[in-house]
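re: that complex we talked abt at group meeting.

here r the seqs, copy pasted straight from the sheet so there may be weird spacing, ignore it
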Amino acid sequence: MTDGWRLVGVLSLLMAAMSLYFLASHAWDVEGIRLVIRATARTSLVLFLLAFTASALAQLAPNAATRWQRRNRRDLGVSFAVSHGIHLAVLIALARVDPELFWKLTKIANIVLAGTAYLFIAAMAATSFDRTAAWLGARKWRLLHLIGGWYIWISFATAIGKRVPLSSFYWPLAALVLVAAIVRLIAMYQRGRRTAALSAP
Ligand code: HEM
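got the structure back, here u go
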């Protein structure tokens, strides 16, 4: 299976090809732009959840698949940043092509909250290289990726949660988001218990 930066390259090419195909098949109109916004939100969700649960799953259910996921955690995270970069680019395209529709779909509060998620995504992607991670230091890196990860999780939980009443399509997506948080919390609880047992007199 593809690993490392090659994985980022392959996934980025696939997402770029998918976006161009959707835009071209809708004659580059607003419907095509909306389709790419939704499609990249979904590729972002899958990639984010894989990166977000990688360490926890490798700890709770060690096997070849979760070890692959854990080994490629950084690459899955960077691929998520690429996917969400495309989400942002097509959002800007929608705002330019049809500002009225854009403001019907988006509230100013969304821009502030989702904009903050983008700041975290940019900071986390920028510190995903060995040199930048070393520059930040291990403690600050862990804190940034812990807070950023949960902030992005909340962004997905609200973006999907508010669509759950609109269509049953969003039920399994909401379940996936919830399960990811539960997996992380169980792994954290288990690690806490292990540390407590080790430091007991
Ligand atoms: C300034 C930033 C953002 C804006 C203006 C924005 C705007 C939008 C809009 C207008 C749609 C609906 C498209 C349509 O129905 O045609 C959408 C979909 C979505 N966005 Fe974003 N978004 C932003 C950032 C984010 C972030 C940070 C996340 C999550 C981390 C996110 C997750 C989603 C999800 C899950 C969907 C639903 C896709 C679906 O229907 O399956 N967005 N966004």
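couple things i noticed - The mean pLDDT is 96. The radius of gyration is 18 Å.
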